[in-house]
Amino acid sequence: MLVKEVIDIIEEFAPHTYAEDFDNVGLLVGDKNATVTAALITLDTLETVVDEAIEKNCNLIISFHPIIFSGLKKLTGKDYVEKTVIKAIKNDIAIYAIHTALDNQFKGVNDMICEKIGLKKRKILIPRKGSIKKLTTFVPNKQAAGVRKALFEAGGGSIGNYDNCSFNLKGEGSFKPNEEANPVIGKRGKIHLEEETQISLIYPSDIEKKLLHALFSSHLYEEVAYEVSALENENQHLGMGMIGELETPEDEKSFLKRIKTEFNCGCIKHSELRGKPIRKVAVLGGSGGFAINNAKAAGADIYLTADLKYHDFYKGNNSFILADIGHYESEQYTKDLLHSYLTKKISNFALILAETNTNPIKYI
């Protein structure tokens, strides 16, 4: 397989359109037309990870965090970023980063945290707005079922736990083909009235190209009438963080000790305990200080995240617990998630989990 073909498979799961605007995802280093010998899957791409890739004959590194985050003006090897990029280029190793595209995926980073904790009734903590669109088109009544089927198969009409969702309204359409037209229905130069069905359905914006291709391929008319509109609806299956419930409430200390063991935390920094059982848990892998108020508004008993600052711990106002379990610790299972997904999709070459521990924080 080529690098670009592997990227296509990755982005079927977590398209780059899922990523935050500030992020730097995608192919960061290398030739997209290169043939992949083997791929190394890692949380971070460091010089030591490139060394591991060389040792294991991998010419593609699939990384969660992007090694290049802000612009590089020079490549002189003055810091760990430049050294890593130089070594990758010298050894013809491509680097692909997924980062917040996977953060925002419903079955991504935060779902893995919930799975490890055992949370049920999972929901996105901060659903994304502006990622849902609506397609409206007009089809002869006899062809309506076929066009609907094609649109559903392309991914349109899915709402949460429901699919094949559409609204259909019957009416009468009119048109007059000119002399250059090649109408399937009606005659040139004459006004034609046709019994039609108006089909409306919503879809995630990242599948628009695929959806419109399905529309044009299945529609009878030479000129297809359609309308696309952006919606302000929140996408309940796309966004940052997640919240869920424990099947059985747990004592605060027992819960935190379980988290420390499960995530192999050197320590857990947390706000004052309240003496109440834990049932509703909010999570956000990586730096999650920005979502404290969202966790509070969602009614969480505890919010698990990382990189909380000193004053962040006051923001709970003793209404819920804030717990910093560590950046690396909260995202460590991401590479397992990527490995599991890709091994189901690719059998042409080896997919190897990196053994290099890239956690820069140590505990004494």
From TrEMBL:
Subunit structure: Homohexamer.
Residues binding a divalent metal cation, per UniProt: H65, D103, H327, E331
Keywords associated with the record: Metal-binding
An example Gene Ontology CC term for this record: cytoplasm
Family membership noted in the UniProt record: Belongs to the GTP cyclohydrolase I type 2/NIF3 family.
Gene3D superfamilies: 3.30.70.120, NIF3 (NGG1p interacting factor 3)-like
Organism this protein belongs to: Salegentibacter salinarum
Protein name (record): GTP cyclohydrolase 1 type 2 homolog
One term of GO molecular function: metal ion binding
InterPro entries: DUF34/NIF3, DUF34/NIF3_bac, DUF34/NIF3_sf, N-reg_PII/ATP_PRibTrfase_C
